[in-house]
Design a protein that fits this description.
Chain lengths: ~290, ~140
């Protein structure tokens, strides 16, 4: 199908874009790569009066390392992020999640910011941001707000962004050199939306003691979640993957819809968490060995 | 106006095939600034000033490039609807990944839907074309 008729704006600078957004607000949608919004416009799921195309604002396409975080501009494409040495080195969890995002052809245009703004419950980039404990930087004509990813996602396709705000950047905490990360996913076909996905980050203080642990789950609840794993800290990693996967499966409140039943999502949570934890642990052991 | 419609109806670039019109099937894939992208999920106005190559422009008129020759040799197409999009993807993919293995070829092909071939012959053709291009360069 074809989209409804709309006014098309292509601001060249951030301030122009923010002026337009302040003016149009509710009637406007922000177009970056268009890999989600494009289909929604064509299928007339969204019928905006105005489309604000931010894809040519160069200030939104940067990657930089600032203190303890890597800052990615909202307009950075997924393929640029995937080929970035900074991201491979400093945010390995994102680098591991990106090959699961769509396809070669859609990653060439789809952006990090667009995926976060759309907030599909099964999208990989929001899950990586939640698991990393990252931050969303929102900007409007009136000022800036920084919201932790774990608060930013409210529900399926619902975030804390106000209509006059745009995502300007994402902040990704830099990985500790001895951390192990892993990402695992099940979808109908490669590149399809995940039915369930799991992300894990782990650090070992000694070979037998877990110092830091994060388990994130996507596609299961109506938004990506980091489950509370504090009771596992300080434990030995031996049987941890099996115990954690049982615990994670019991902690989630899975969706039940056409693509999968709640029972199947719970079963996948168990399998994927076990895989991700085992894989992150073996990388963490290797990293410890390498650094000593 | 969608970019794919502009290319077909205004510029008569009929190799741009339009399938699903929501970015899933890959038939409308073209090269913009050398990168393989869908032309159905962006608008003609967005491409203002951009360098665009459709399957018509992958080889000089009347000739076939290495990938097209391999497609012919290995019967990597039947009805041909998906083929121009795949050829554009392969052009970008092999420039970025000159020595692909089968897994990477299949991962790249996951962005295209072909209902005739079962993909095996397409994978064979791409791997052979990659080898020929490495030998040639």
């Amino acid at each position: 199908m074809k989209p409804v008729a709309f006014d098309y704006y292509r601001p060249q600078t951030l301030s122009e874009a923010l002026e337009l957004l302040a003016d149009k607000g509710d009637e406007a949608v922000i177009l970056a790569g268009g890999m989600t919004l494009g289909p929604m416009l064509n299928l007339r799921i969204v019928r905006p009066r105005a489309v604000i195309d931010i894809s040519r604002i160069e200030a939104l396409q940067t990657i930089s390392v600032t203190g303890s975080v890597v800052v990615t501009g909202a307009g950075l494409t997924q393929s640029e992020a995937l080929s970035s040495e900074i991201i491979a080195r400093e945010v390995p969890l994102l680098a591991m999640a990106l090959p699961w995002v769509g396809h070669f052809q859609t990653r060439n245009r789809g952006t990090l910011g667009g995926s976060v703004a759309h907030a599909d419950p099964s999208a990989e980039i929001p899950l990586a941001l939640v698991a990393c404990g990252g931050t969303v930087v929102l900007q409007s004509r009136w000022g800036q707000r920084r919201i932790g990813a774990r608060q930013f996602f409210v529900g399926a396709l619902v975030t804390q962004r106000r209509p006059d705000e745009m995502i300007m950047a994402l902040e990704w905490p830099r990985s500790a050199p001895d951390a192990g990360h892993a990402f695992s996913e099940i979808a109908q076909r490669h590149g399809d939306f995940a039915i369930a996905a799991a992300a894990c980050t782990v650090r070992l203080a000694k070979p037998d003691r877990v110092e830091q642990l994060v388990v994130g789950i996507g596609g299961v609840e109506d938004r990506p979640v980091a489950i509370d794993v504090s009771s596992f800290l300080g434990q030995a990693p031996g049987e941890m993957a099996a115990k954690l996967s049982e615990y994670a499966a019991a902690s989630v409140s899975p969706m039940d819809d056409r693509s999968a039943s709640a029972a199947y999502r719970t079963a996948l949570t168990k399998v994927l968490v076990e895989r991700a934890v085992n894989s992150a642990l073996s990388i963490a052991r290797l990293q410890r060995g390498r650094l000593q | 106006m969608l970019l794919c419609d502009f290319l077909r109806h205004e510029l008569h670039a009929f190799a741009v095939h339009v399938g699903c019109e929501h970015g899933v099937c890959g038939a409308c894939t073209i090269l913009i600034e050398g990168r393989a992208v869908r032309s159905c999920t962006q608008y003609a106005a967005q491409a203002d000033g951009a360098d665009i190559v459709t399957a018509e422009g992958l080889a000089p008129p009347g000739t076939l490039n290495e990938v097209q020759r391999a497609f012919m040799k290995h019967h990597a197409l039947q009805c041909g609807f998906c083929t121009p999009g795949i050829l554009c993807s392969v052009a970008h993919f092999l420039r970025q990944t000159p020595e692909p293995d089968e897994r990477r070829v299949r991962e790249m092909l996951s962005g295209h839907i072909c209902r005739c071939t079962g993909y095996t012959s397409i994978v064979t053709a791409i791997l052979e074309a990659a080898a020929m291009m490495r030998k040639g360069s």
